[in-house]
């Protein structure tokens, strides 16, 4: 059982949409979206690689949709801002290699209702997935990761909204925020680190002033103070970046995608995978459950773990850990409540969160592929619409 430190500093990082790994995540999820638009039953496991002037798209895709893979990839890259040949990676001129085949029939029969050993749709793989929530921020997310996301997201917004004013910014960037905690509560930001790709003519003073302005805008004032340490492009130079500076791969930023190192992670990546892959869908469901538990006042902090076997519908286990902040007699009671309120079979998760029909509900998988999969309200797993149901069932255990 986790202990609450009297005082400690915790650090999390985020990366911008122009980071090479995030470029790959967005390409893979753009391809997933393209498949789902015409065929909601598409099975997609798409991996991308980017390097200097090259995109490689590979994986297993079974879909009735007619998708121009290359066009989808180039459009995703252009939207990020890689539109100039002089930086070594350009949407219009880079080479694109396509290496795609259909999903394995052995896997397909395990996750298609009525085809495997069991009648129901089974999990797309074995493994364990986690979800987390904490009341320390209004998003019910850990402070270090949500602050880190907001910094690079706002820098990207300004770069795109005012390209002439911020002409010295290029798409690749990373942020890192260190937060001091006392008795389990965040009390102040200690350090902000930002490394941002730039043009040769940029003056470092410009970027330093911009980063400070952005940090003070997006981080709540109660956490800021005159002694925050800022480190901006601490190597002194960051002209070569993006896929030209570092090879990118889908699924390599799993901690950035989740809770910034707070809590646990099952190891599975998200982007490029359709909802039959419980690595993604069950992690979304676990966040949904944990967030609703915290929003219901049943705990100040909550982590949910589920585990699956490939082809089996029911989870093998469900574990609830409130880090000794639960309001019931014990966390085992919360596990019983979760089982009563939420359907954790793959088909139930997909239906609850409408994971085959994102566009009808105003979001896309590509939207998730930068700035975190959690903590932004327009995703269905961020809703707190099960609070009443949780509290009603919880009455039996009080």
> What percentage of the residues does DSSP assign to strands (E)?
15-25%
Low-confidence stretches: 106-110
Rounded mean pLDDT score: 93
Distance between the termini: 22 Å
Computed Rg: 22 Å
Descriptive account of the structure:
This protein is α+β, with helices and mostly antiparallel strands and 398 residues long. Helices cover 32% and strands 22% of the residues. It is built from twelve helices and eleven strands. Helix 1 (20-38) packs across helix 2 (69-80), helix 4 packs across helix 5 (204-218) and helix 9 crosses helix 12. The longest helix has 19 residues, at 20-38. It is flat.
Blueprint (SSEs and pairs):
Elements (H helix, E strand, L loop, with lengths): L6 E9 L4 H19 L4 E9 L2 E9 L6 H12 L14 E7 L3 H7 L15 E8 L8 H19 L7 E14 L2 E14 L5 H15 L10 E4 L9 H4 L2 E2 L4 H4 L20 H18 L5 E8 L8 E5 L9 H11 L4 H8 L11 H4 L18 H8 L4
Parallel strand pairs: 3-4, 7-8
Antiparallel strand pairs: 1-6, 2-3, 2-9, 5-10, 6-7, 10-11
Structure, briefly:
It contains twelve helices and eleven strands.
Please name the defining characteristics of this protein.
single chain; 398 residues; alpha+beta; four-stranded mixed β-sheet; 12 helices; 22% strand; flat
